[in-house]
Amino acid sequence: MASAEAPFEASVPREALAGRRVLIIVENLPVPFDRRVWQEARTLKAAGAEVSIICPTGKGHEAVYEVIDGIHIHRHTLPLDAGSAAGYLREYSAALWAETRLAWRVFFGVGFDTIHACNPPDLIFLVALPFKLLGKRFIFDHHDINPELYEAKFNKRGFFWRLLVLFERLTFRLADVSIATNDSYREIACTRGGMAPDKVFTVRSGPDIGRIKAVPPNPAFRNGRRYLVGYVGVMGDQEGVDLLLEAVDHMVHKLGRNDVQFCLVGGGPSLESLKAMSARLGLEDHVTFLGRAPDRELFEVLSTADVCVNPDRVNPMNDLSTMNKILEYMAVEKPIVQFDVKEGRVSAGDASLYAAKNDPVDFADKIVALLGDDEARKRMGRYGRERVVRELSWQTQIPTLIAAYHAAARR
Predict the structure, then answer these.
(1) What's the mean pLDDT in 91-114?
(2) Smallest Cα–Cα separation from 244: which of 362, 353, 335?
(3) What is the torsional sign of CA 272, 275, 277, 279?
(4) What is the C-alpha separation between 108 and 132, in angstroms, rounded?
(5) Which of 101, 214, 260, 273 is 20–30 Å from 388 (CA)?
(6) Which tens digits make up the pLDDT trace of 316-343?
(7) Three-state SS for 84?
(8) What are the residues whose beta carbons fall under 8 Å from the beta carbon of 242, sequence distance 6 or more?
(9) Nearest to 107 by CA among 122, 93, 125, 127
(10) Per-residue pLDDT for 3 more than 60?
(11) How does residue 2 score in pLDDT terms, banded at 50, 70 and 90?
């Protein structure tokens, strides 16, 4: 059996997918920046498949075509981030056109027998439909529950919510096999999506424990303070970083805790407004925004942190979604503070403390409690690492991904 510290390809059954040709389509992130998609692609390649990917361009990933590790990557440009209904229409129309054009290019080039579509949005089935009619297999990789995301973002349902449910149902209806990122998503596939349970496979977005592990800490991130609290993730409305800043404000200005530095790693649409909020609250010296950072710096922050946090709001979307940062914190043996979201508790278990729903004061109190208990931090960190290695790492998900492909082939 391969060592946990070895590259995950060592865990892939060789020639399990020999002769298969796969086209992966992902719209919201470039590859290889999208870690889940890149891990899937490398796994399929290691199992003997010929793998092509269609994705958008992005910072550091501007080439419209390149081959990395034997994987063909075709990229296309997209309009600027959508901020309105018209903006989303422009983005999705441009993406569908580019994906369709590139899919036919791959079809007449290296070819494919399976389309592996990663949402959002739930419209890629339109690209796959003509190829299904030609006998190709369609696998739906369910990354986001879009009806719940709409409800969380706009606090309502209505016409567009029903439209998203329709697109989701059509996607499931066309799929030969569906891949869920957790069991909450699997239940949605089987109920709202109407899929037979034997066609839905849970493949978690586990960290590659051969890559994500503790490195020597860098005291500079502490900014001269005794403790460091770390956050890694997107700076967006749903991630609750504003609630984290309110918790920091309570710790600094109400509890007088000047011995704690916060380091936040990640980019996103709300980054500048969050920086402005931090300045407005008088927290600039206590909160460092690193923006999007290379892996070396990200791992240094996590390895230096005494506590890591996940301030995702409790809402219909976050409650049922697994956040990659939780598993990454656990992989580097860090205790966690988060709000009490369902899947966050499923993932972290005893590696985390759970604050009351969207309550920044209780969130602050939980951080303070952990900082004051060295033994609890060590115990929770060990538990988290052991749980990731035993059950949640990417290495443990590989057999299910391969099984999903075998099931699609049989159908």
Answers:
(1) 96
(2) 362
(3) negative
(4) 16
(5) 260
(6) 999 999 999 999 999 999 999 999 999 9
(7) coil
(8) 270, 274, 277
(9) 127
(10) no
(11) very low
Distance between CA atoms of 391 and 381, rounded to whole angstroms? Answer: 15
Q: Taking 70 as the threshold, does the pLDDT of residue 81 lie above it?
A: no
pLDDT at 85: 63
Say how far apart CA 261 and CA 222 lie, in whole Å.
6
pTM here is 0.91
Radius of gyration of the chain (CA): 21
The whole-angstrom separation of Cα 409 and Cα 298 is 39
Residue 43 CB contacts under 8 Å (≥ 6 apart), including other chains? 8, 9, 12, 394, 398, 401, 402
Give the strands of the sheet with 352-355, arranged side by side: 287-291, 260-265, 227-232, 307-310, 336-339, 352-355
Rounded Cα–Cα distance for residues 384 and 337 (Å): 13
Q: Tell me which of 5 and 395 has the higher pLDDT.
A: 395
Structure tokens given for 9: 């390809």
Give the Cα separation of 281 and 292 in Å (integer): 23
DSSP state for residue 52 in the 8-state scheme: E
For residues 73 and 190, give the distance between their C-alpha atoms in angstroms, rounded to a whole number: 32
180-209, pLDDT tens digit by residue? Answer: 999 999 999 999 999 999 999 999 999 999
Tokens linked to 346: 């499923």
**pLDDT greater than 50 at residue 71:** yes
Q: Which two tokens stand for residue 250?
A: 């309570």
User: How deeply is 375 buried, as exposed, middle or buried, from its count of CB atoms within 10 A (0-12, 13-18, 19+)?
Assistant: exposed
C-alpha–C-alpha distance, residues 129 and 171, integer Å? 10
Q: What is the pLDDT of residues 115-127, one digit of tens each?
A: 999 999 999 999 9
Q: Which residue has the higher pLDDT, 212 or 356?
A: 356
Q: What is the pLDDT averaged over residues 31-56?
A: 97
Please provide residue 381's backbone torsions phi and psi, each rounded to the nearest 5 degrees: -65, -45
Sequence-distant (6+) residues with CB within 8 A of 264 are: 230, 231, 235, 241, 244, 287, 288, 289, 290
Kind of pairing, strands 65-68 and 71-76?
antiparallel
